[in-house]
Automatic annotation (TrEMBL), chains A, B:
The keyword Hydrolase applies. It comes from the Eukaryota. This is Beta-hexosaminidase. Residues 176-493 form the Glycoside hydrolase family 20 catalytic domain. Its EC number is 3.2.1.52. Disulfide bonds join 76-124, 286-337, 511-528. Its main location: cytoplasm. One of its GO terms (cellular component) is membrane. Coiled coil: none annotated. There are 3 forms of beta-hexosaminidase: hexosaminidase A is a heterodimer composed of one subunit alpha and one subunit beta (chain A and B); hexosaminidase B is a homodimer of two beta subunits (two chains A and B); hexosaminidase S is a homodimer of two alpha subunits. The composition of the dimer (isozyme A versus isozyme S) has a significant effect on the substrate specificity of the alpha subunit active site.
Amino acid sequence: MLLVLKFAGLCLCLGLCRGLQFNDVDEEAPSAAQTSKYGSLWPLPQEVNIAETSFKLSSSTFRIVDSKQSSAGPSCNILQNAYRKYFEYMFGVARKQEFGKNGRPGLSELTELQVWVTSVDSECDGYPSITSDESCDLSLNVSLCLLSRAMSQLILSPLSFQKNINATKIKDFPRFAHRGILLDTSRHYLPVKAILTTLETMAMNKYNVFHWHIVDDPSFPYLSRTFPNLSQKGAYHPYTHVYTPADVKMVIEFARLRGIRVIPEFDTPGHTQSWGKGQANLLTPCYSGSKPSGSFGPVNPILNTTYDFMTQFFKEISSVFPDAYVHLGGDEVDFTCWRSNPDIQKFMEDHGFGHDYSKLESFYIQRLLDIVTSTKKGYMIWQEVFDNGVKLKPDTVVHVWIGGGSNEELSKVTASGYTTILSAPWYLDYISYGQDWQKYYKVEPLNFNGTEQQKKLVIGGEACMWGEYVDATNLTPRLWPRASAVAERLWSHQNVTDINDAYSRLSAHRCRLVERGIPAEPLFSSYCPREYKAV
Amino acid sequence: MLLVLKFAGLCLCLGLCRGLQFNDVDEEAPSAAQTSKYGSLWPLPQEVNIAETSFKLSSSTFRIVDSKQSSAGPSCNILQNAYRKYFEYMFGVARKQEFGKNGRPGLSELTELQVWVTSVDSECDGYPSITSDESCDLSLNVSLCLLSRAMSQLILSPLSFQKNINATKIKDFPRFAHRGILLDTSRHYLPVKAILTTLETMAMNKYNVFHWHIVDDPSFPYLSRTFPNLSQKGAYHPYTHVYTPADVKMVIEFARLRGIRVIPEFDTPGHTQSWGKGQANLLTPCYSGSKPSGSFGPVNPILNTTYDFMTQFFKEISSVFPDAYVHLGGDEVDFTCWRSNPDIQKFMEDHGFGHDYSKLESFYIQRLLDIVTSTKKGYMIWQEVFDNGVKLKPDTVVHVWIGGGSNEELSKVTASGYTTILSAPWYLDYISYGQDWQKYYKVEPLNFNGTEQQKKLVIGGEACMWGEYVDATNLTPRLWPRASAVAERLWSHQNVTDINDAYSRLSAHRCRLVERGIPAEPLFSSYCPREYKAV
């Protein structure tokens, strides 16, 4: 018996077809949850049909092979890495012995998974992009099998050490193309290992964008080749709390192999206190009366040196980060310091800005956007930049983050013809008691006033984990499975809204994460067959 | 140069004198916090005096020895285990190489720590109790030392791999005798390792009571030798989700070596759904109209078999758990099922209880208390038992947990002459955004109306981590350092209330926990010299 996985484009990560999303967890349903007919599938595929008949699987005979018709084969790194990973997920690593592998009579064996990439361009060596085709079909046909007994009993038998897989048809593709997680490595430094663990778990939840909010006021951990003083002076520690070029490369490659884009954010002109430590004259000197107070405000927008610096800096960034987009921030600019500075005041007068400092902000951003455009990159910006009327490239992605009024904002942004992503309802750093995953799950991103055309401009969303109260000690259990709820909202069909069914699948999904070594926290009183052991 | 640690009683855990609470963390202050003159001491000792002069320490020469006058020596397990642990804390384990151990000229070396237990009964083989003397003095005298240069510079030098310790005098004892953490192993099963990690961290925070809320409605993980069906049927899984007698023994011994009492809670008559699965006729059958509905309510208080069972069960418990106290619960009894049951109704009539089911509850509890008293144990109970007017032994500990009105409750309980502990403000499972440790820290347990005599009856408090949303994946970062805030409130002097000083010390303390492998979450944007690496 063989199983064919058929991808329109390179699926980038075998897990994108979740016919393979079974494991021991499915065999023992968590006690508290009623079982979903979709088992532990998460996020739910667009179309799925699970028959009652099942096939046995044995690690000694099961093979994943490239279909003859496939446009990608043994030389495709992405694919071969995915084969190894999913084989391990399916059969575990060495510690898990396989018992009874001769199986029971009457159960057909599935011995081969054929992977068929149908697109001409297999993208094996490329990077994922907003236009990557993530659709795939899985069909496990039962017509060849003679089944002597009810297989479902075998599947549920807790004494069965044999893996089984049900006959299944899946037709799958994402509802939104941009499904991201924001991590903040400035408020707390996250060791690379914590980032890689997040990427690994993102892949298990079909996230495809890592929004790396890499620097901010508190620290500047990005080690710039062009301006090494930025991290030398601006990081929490110049050696132990920085991301070296090798670190950044590793993160990008680790993400690429999992079909995840890495979009770095270098937020300016606000949120830049740490930049000032290693780059003289970059920030605005604040005044107390007629004298500099010794403290600094946002990036100084009136000096040519500022733009020279940004030109060099973003030239580096454009070559270090392969993604077509960079996030330029532009949020929460505090005008107090600009107002206090006599040189700024004079500049405002000379340019006829009056006392409207948002015009000065726009002046700065406009020049920055031009600089970044010259590096051949597209950009994302936080919503304030749009709100302030800055002239944006048509392919700009406006990032909506302000809670209360985000529907109105989506209406406005899309009415102006810009693509947009939503984060406002998904600030996962805001914790509260109870099952708040439901709140995230119930969000409908297209629930705003607008034409069909406008709705199409919403290309996705991001769950944000800001770092004030989060570091490597609590990141993973705080992020998962709460971010899994957002993942399904962004992937699955709009009508997938049954909260009880979601509870059941998500409970099983979180136990699968735990089984794979990810400390994803529980939804409610319950247990996993194998509890998290470390620490 | 030598240092003498003098204990009134056996300190049970060397760490109880925190002159030894230094490590590399102190050498590099966290960026965000202003530094406290008490460094990273947590909880703050009752009296502490740190001089500017310091001594060097080297793992190759430093020794911890039993003072000649000490009543405890090499044969004292508790002490020897503590020596090893604190030596490791001080100098790290193998991975940390010691550089420059020949040190700098002019810095006196501290080569010996003499430990002097002054009490006649050293308690080396015994268990800690509510009357254990936890006081200790530490005096590191500087009069012998000639110091050629300012030592503080050396201490702060980030390039110094040498450990230094400041001349210090400490006189210490706890404000409250009962300082506990409640873990709930019923709503989620916690692997033994997670419990041991909690005990280890409790010792680092001078907690001395582990309140083991071991069973409850969702599951019964306690493996009873007398009634093995209780866990066989009532645990989430009869093998993987139970605490065997060996597990329980290990937890108790691990705790004992750290000066921590283990008080198990077997909560009845409510919160007992899981008991009913393995013990027929123990729970009250609920009725729907004139017929049993198939569901069950609280323990059935009208059957003699119930009391026979409890007698046998608590006989086992009294021998398994060495502590002088057992927690009997008695909270949140729902009368709905009792009301529905005709046999119960008749019993109520026969006993003249009318329709006051709290009288039936008291009837049950009264008999249970007698049973437990006959096992020579004292008991703790949740406040409802006191509120319902049950006759209690004079040494009963009433556990105040209901938020809003806890001050009034403390007044009433102590006015009645009972000892009491407070948990109402310290339900750490209720999470919220931000620095909620401050809320826990600001609680003043004796801020209720009552005489001096009444105040003395408040013997302490407990931080509770109920398990609805907590298992091994998120327990540790959710518990620490939030429970550290409670620890200082229960240990240190009433006037230790400076929140900024606390922030500084607690930030450093949490980095020390991280350094020791405990994933304690951050207070706010900041960093630790060595971030948490695992996962």
